[in-house]
Amino acid sequence: MCTAIRDDIVSGALAPGSRLIEEILAARYGVSRVPIREALRTLQSEGFVTTRHHAGACVAEPTEQEAADLLDVRALLEPLGAARAAARRSPAHLKVLRGLVRLGRERARHGNPADLQQLDDWFHETLAQAVGSPSLTALLTQLRRKIEWMYAVEPPARAGESWDEHGAVLDAVARGDAERARALMAAHVERSLPVYRLRRPLKTEVRDPKPPVNTVRVRP
Questions:
Q1: Domain interval for residue 74
Q2: Same domain, residue pair 189 and 98
Q3: Phi, psi (deg, nearest 5) at residue 157
Q4: Fewest 10 Å CB contacts: which of 15, 37, 107, 217?
Q5: What digits encode the pLDDT tens for the residues 177-207?
Q6: pLDDT tens digits for range 13-41
Q7: How far is it, in rounded angstroms, from Cα 93 to Cα 79?
Q8: Same structural domain for residues 185 and 103?
């Protein structure tokens, strides 16, 4: 249930700021209110849902600063994930990753970018699963979902180079070279930044003005 509601938030079917009424959601997804209530609690902990006074649960409305912070967090977490995957990946993970890199290079070489983004998502998700830590895998997966929610990814002009970078990360992971995998992923994340564009105007964070300083006038 949580996945279905999250997917509708990420896709925009449930717009930022819209109310999430349990009865309506239960009818929408064909379930009782109990799993809806539990899912909303989970999504609130993930930052997709917020609770407003007198309005109840609503889809969160991220700010521009929050969106920018996500890309900064990605620059820290994904290199860590690649390093952990180099130390803990299984033969099954390597087989899937090699297949994805082969397909990605083929699609990029023949100018067929239609499914490149999905292949890219699968590559990073498989790498996240290879880190050998459920907590870190969950963080990486949640981070990518929130970035997908806030950003559209433009087809990269350098698709071939991007998949060569994926291949280099995979080679380091396959050799168990954690530090090289970390460095290559950090460079890949840095080079990918220009393809991210905000999906919609986000709220600008407004800081409360400083309260006036109370002064006491002393009579002469």
A1: 64-198
A2: yes
A3: -70, -25
A4: 217
A5: 999 999 999 999 999 998 899 987 776 654 4
A6: 999 999 999 999 999 999 999 999 999 99
A7: 17
A8: yes
